[in-house]
Amino acid sequence: MESVRLCSTELDHKHCNQNLIDMAISADGNNGAMWLEIVYFHANRNHDEQTIFAIQEPINSPYFNEHYGQNIQRYSKALAGSTFDDFNLNVVAAIGIEAAKSTGFGGLIVWCKQEINRSEKAHACLQLGIDMKQRGQRFMTQGFGMTIQKMAYQAKDNLESYANVERELKRIMTSSYSEQYQKAFTLMFFDEELLRFWLNNLDDYGEVEAANLLIEEAISRSKNENYLPCDS
Fold first, then answer.
1. Is the pTM of this model over 0.85?
2. Domain range for residue 195?
């Protein structure tokens, strides 16, 4: 999946071809998140038929795993072999690496905007946006999905659905930057057990629910007068 992701923006690299896509499908063809990267791959190259075909695959796939938590833990383990052998600091660095990764979403937006009034394309983009919102594990993926939905609803002059998506987007953004979440997120870097709790929940429940669980666990731990993570 990582190779396909890189190739969604590296348009001229000699190894970014159909052979790479075929190998990715063979390795992880049931994963909707991998198919989403294939959608990005083709949309950025303006391949209409391949993009519309690929859009159906994440929608129909049995599962959707972006491996966000797994990637963070893998980078952390790799850093553990360096001079920076501190798990909490390594996770901070790993989160930064994940955040810095390029994405092919911009190309998908451009592709969807082109001939958005064509029914086949409008329907495909809308359905993909709904699926990304429903099954995306990351705040970012869900936000991208709602952005596509808004664009499709606007093209259809469906102002009610547009407003509903706009409200949901604001709700998610508000929860992801809430004071409770920011406090819990900061606390976990002083409590390795709490940090591992959050990491393990990312791929099982997605970033939104993992955040809710983190807040609940942080509150529960803080009620114990003997809980002093900052003193350790």
1. yes
2. 177-232
